[in-house]
Design a protein that fits this description.
- The structure holds two protein chains of two kinds.
- In chain A, 16% of the residues are buried.
- By secondary structure, chain A is mainly alpha-helical.
- Helices cover 71% and strands 0% of the residues of chain A.
- The N and C termini of chain A lie far apart (93 Å).
- Chain B has 21 helices and two strands.
- In chain B, helix 2 runs antiparallel to helix 3, helix 7 packs antiparallel against helix 8 and helix 15 runs antiparallel to helix 20.
- The mean pLDDT of chain B is 91.
- Classes of the chains: A mainly alpha, B mainly alpha.
Chain lengths: 203, 475
């Protein structure tokens, strides 16, 4: 019972939040709706017993959303003074969302302890005695090792590409050269002079 | 299958990726001074990977990867094309920007991706291979950073390539969702009792994504812009090796994974083949830039190769693979000619008008270029005629008579612009002479490809046997 209720709640909120992401005119609101959407998607994952993916969604995407938020703020030239003055307005909105998310956690926890949705009908059935992370790791590092390594190469290419396309050597800077500094002897820098009194100093 | 035997089967990719990583360290610490060293080591690595591909005995990594005669054939072509485009690169880059040691590294990593593409018997391997190749290609397209055209080419390629990848991935997810497996043999099994709507949708999306990678009409729009904007050695690479890899992965995908759905994908391939042949021929006519013209020429050639594939028979696949081998020779030769086109100050020029009267300034280059153009046009005494004949035969044998006739007519239309270049070189008033070539590599590539196209008929028994063996591995 509670699973069905939780499913419809998550699904409905996911669709609503997804729609509001693209419909809201305020970019800050859109980003907040995006967080709600991810959160509800994580709830759906939890219901089918994919707890690892659920946690991944929350951790990775909320992290990603923080970065996205920064981009939005940087690119759209939002006046922070105005933003701060409107804290009361945003605050209400934010607290409301936080309350919704908190309520969802409680419902999800209830649905989770009531047992996950039966998915016997699907093709690749998951054995019940191992956790998601174990099952995924066992596949990732054995059967799909080849793909896993190749994905590493894709990331390597991305890194090389970023450096090749953006790295620039600037002339005129004075970087620290540690070996030159260490090689420097006292004789190169200091001159001991026995200065007779009453005569001019030779520089 | 033990890990060790999987490792041995994937040795070509292992050699190339380990070598690329080692060269990257050399490039990082020694800087651009090491470009020459990196380039020659990369060519040696490609040769070593080619040798290693001869050891092939089946599937590796639980059916993610397959080494057979087909992958051997495609890989040898890819490695040769990659090595030649590496050899052609240094003079261009030292003139236009500076030779950079990352170039061989990126070419090697792109080649690893292509090797994965041709050996893929699983959608996952295919996708990761495509991404590895594409991502390297995006960077290579805008390799000369200060050149605005190169930056535009890179960005265009990236945006459109990402869209195509999305379409492809969507199709793959549909295929996976409706059949429950990503393995080619499993897909074929799932479709054996008829193709349902979901699988059909997946098939269409996958074909669209793959068509982008081989720049078949109607997914060709990026080709002229990217080929024109990218540095010429990079264009040489784009026009040769990835085309072979794309055609090979399409052949394996259609025959092995989507075999039972032949009636469905045949329609798509027939349309793409005809559209590519016609649009490639018509689109090239108004071009004044030689690289754009060669881009349309490659679209046109992909169309002919697809004619063979559309027949869906071992003969057709074998004809397509023969076509790709001859196409690689013609493409590498043509771009080596383009790399000869430098004005008196040594700047690279791409205007077709600057070729006029070349026969009076530089007889050898004009003769080589003319042979390549005649061969691309498919004029009989030259080798370019032979694979065209093969694909038409394969199509008629499979009962696709109208396809063969329209494609043959398309090749007549296409001959116009190849002949126009020859006319410009031989009958027009001479333009200022090109700067003398200072390197023998370009001249060597032109000479070798011209000799191959003239005397290549001696190689036909070998080539036919290899293509037939390659196609035989798929059926």
């Amino acid at each position: 019972m509670i699973q069905t209720f939780a499913f419809y709640m998550f699904a409905l909120l996911l669709l609503t939040a997804g729609g509001l992401v693209i419909l809201s005119r305020n970019p800050v609101h859109a980003v907040l709706w995006l967080i709600v959407a991810f959160f509800n998607a994580a709830g759906l994952m939890l219901l089918i017993g994919a707890e690892f993916i659920a946690m991944l969604l929350v951790i990775v995407y909320v992290g990603a959303v923080a970065v996205l938020f920064l981009f939005v703020v940087m690119m759209l030239d939002i006046d922070f003074a105005e933003l701060r003055s409107g804290l009361a307005r945003y605050g209400v909105f934010g607290f409301l969302l936080a309350a919704v998310l908190a309520a969802e956690i409680i419902v999800a926890e209830g649905a989770w302890s009531a047992g996950k949705i039966d998915l016997a009908g699907r093709i690749a059935a998951v054995s019940g005695d191992r956790t998601n992370i174990e099952a995924m790791g066992a596949l990732l590092y054995s059967k799909y090792l080849y793909i896993f390594e190749a994905s590493g190469l894709v990331l390597l290419v991305a890194m090389i590409g970023a450096i090749v396309l953006t790295h620039r050597e600037r002339g005129g800077t004075r970087p620290q050269n540690i070996s030159d500094q260490v090689k420097r002897r006292p004789e190169d820098a200091v001159r001991m002079v026995n200065q007779p009194s009453g005569q001019g100093v030779q520089l | 299958m033990s890990f060790m035997s999987s490792f041995v089967l994937t040795l070509p990719e292992v050699i190339l990726s380990a070598g690329a990583i080692a060269l990257m360290m050399v490039a990082a610490f020694a800087g651009d001074k090491a470009e020459g060293l990196c380039r020659w080591v990369a060519i040696a690595l490609l040769a070593a990977a080619g040798m290693a591909s001869f050891h092939h005995a089946g599937e590796a990594f639980d059916g993610l990867y397959r080494a057979d005669d087909f992958s051997l054939y495609a890989k040898l072509l890819i490695y040769v094309a990659a090595a030649v485009s590496l050899m052609l690169s240094p003079r261009f880059f030292s003139h236009e920007d500076r030779p950079r040691a990352e170039y061989p590294v990126l070419i090697l990593l792109a080649t690893v991706g292509m090797g994965m593409m041709v050996s893929a018997v699983d959608l996952l391997t295919l996708y990761v291979g495509i991404e590895l190749n594409s991502l390297s290609a995006y960077v290579l397209a805008s390799f000369i950073r200060k050149d605005e055209r190169a930056a535009e080419a890179g960005l265009k390629y990236f945006v459109l390539g990402a869209l195509a990848s999305g379409i492809l991935l969507y199709g793959m997810s549909l295929l996976y969702g409706f059949s429950g497996t990503t393995h080619y043999a499993g897909l074929a099994k799932a479709m054996a009792d008829g193709v349902n709507t979901g699988e059909l949708f997946g098939l269409v999306f996958v074909m669209a994504g793959l068509a982008f990678k081989i720049s078949a009409v109607p997914f060709h729009m990026w080709t002229p812009d990217v080929y024109e904007g990218a540095p010429t050695p990079v264009t040489t690479f784009f026009a040769s090796a990835p085309k072979v890899a794309g055609m090979a992965m399409l052949a394996r995908m259609t025959t092995v994974a989507l075999g039972p759905a032949a009636a469905q994908w045949q329609q798509i391939l027939i349309f793409m083949a005809l559209a590519s042949v016609i649009l490639g021929a018509v689109g090239a006519m108004g071009q004044t830039n030689i690289k754009r013209l060669l881009a349309y020429s490659s679209i046109n050639n992909v169309g002919f190769a697809l004619v063979g594939l559309a027949s869906g028979t071992p003969d057709g696949v074998s004809a397509t693979m023969t076509y790709m081998a001859v196409y690689v020779v013609m493409t590498l030769g043509s771009f080596a000619c383009v790399l000869h086109m430098r004005d008196a100050d040594g700047h690279y020029v791409e205007d077709i008008a600057s070729l006029s009267g070349l026969s009076r300034n530089n007889k050898a280059l004009a003769a080589g270029f003319a042979i390549l153009m005649f061969s691309l046009a498919g004029i009989p005494p030259l080798l370019g005629f032979w694979p065209k004949l093969l694909v038409f035969f394969a199509a008629t044998k499979a009962g696709l008579f109208p396809l063969a006739v329209i494609a043959a007519l398309g090749s007549v239309v296409g001959a116009y612009y190849y002949l126009k270049i020859i006319k410009t070189m031989y009958f027009d008033e001479p333009a200022p002479a090109y700067a003398p070539a200072q390197s023998y590599v370009e001249a060597g590539v032109v000479a070798v490809s011209a000799v191959l196209l003239v005397g290549g008929y001696l190689l036909i028994p070998v080539l036919s046997a290899a293509s037939a063996a390659a196609a035989g591995a798929l059926f």
